[in-house]
Amino acid sequence: MNWKEDKQNNQLPVTGNFNFRVPFKDTLNTEFLFLRTHNPSWYNFKENKNALTIKLLPQTILEKGNPAFIGRRQQHLSSSASTEMNFSTKLANEKAGIVIFQNENHFYFMCKSHDNGKDVIQLFKGNPTTDKMDLLKQVALPSFQKTAYFKVNSERDVYSFWYALKENEWKPLADKIDGKYLSTAVAKGFVGVLYGMYATADGQITDNKAIYKWFDYSGNDSTFKK
Description:
Elements: E1 18-23, E2 43-44, E3 52-55, E4 68-73, E5 78-86, E6 95-101, E7 107-115, E8 118-127, E9 132-140, E10 147-155, E11 158-164, E12 171-178, H1 184-187, E13 194-200, E14 209-219
């Protein structure tokens, strides 16, 4: 079901196969979740028209604090989440993008950042042994490229990560990434997986912000197909 079919009720679908886009305007739908305490001081809809502005916080998702994270549950084995983001930095510790999160050590984070004088797209994986995150892949971007699109696809126990500089012109960043790493069997716990928008300054205080225009989610499991 496409969300357009249920707009008269102003509710996002929650069961079966569906897809929707949430354009950010003036509030968050109730399906969006935060890690631990909900603190609205680091995000707003007023600073940039028709956009969600998220301040980069010193806290990271590797810690048990209150990072700048806003997410929604992955409800399907075959799923996709994507977003459009405007963000610029000249500091390697400042990162913003999309994350698929199970717990503080088990996650994948695809972000825009800066490294050795270049703007870059990076893919990180949480490391439970070091309590840090490991860089899996990095590609350089054109200078002064503020807009980036991120997409994560899941197909049962495999994830793929895509980025674009123009809408729908997707380029592969990493394919066939281990999804079992996010499973209950490996990561433990029973909270499930969240797709999220996430921005951090990794322990530093900054005034920098990331601007998200929309968030897409789709689920297409064979179980619900007739």
